[in-house]
Amino acid sequence: MMAEIVNKIQQSGLIQLDLASFKPKETIVTIDLKENLWQELALKEKDFRAFVKENDWSKYKGQIVGVFCSADAIIPTWAFMLVISKLQEHGAKGFVGDEMEAEKQMILSNIQALDLEEYSDGRIIIKGCSDVAHPAFAMTELVKHLQPVAKSIMYGEPCSTVPVFKKKKNNTL
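^ that's the sequence the OP posted. Answer follows.
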């Protein structure tokens, strides 16, 4: 008679987190402000305001939008503010930066949305292999978010972890 197979990792109380679960599920698109520059050098306020007014912002609804400029030009801050404001009005999540920067910001937002109660005094393993464009960024943000409540944080797989953080015991009398 064969003995029952026991999942010791599941019984250990370890909490595994996969970085892939923090990747945005929405489509990421970009808006390059270069197309609105006069001679690829400068932004004319009147022309830019016309673009903002006439553009169909509803096509970005439900998407993540990175707003950037691929030309070597100085773009005034108010230009980014106008575009992000329009995106916000139409149900898009706008960020300043290219597609990679928008993904990073969404990963950060998803990490910060974690309910810390679920991880209080937890022994957490952050899986090492994941399909995330900026794993070091995501992992460090995850550590920063969870460390105040975790008992310990490790990197890797349950069979082979690298200790990252362990809460010190309080010496109270």
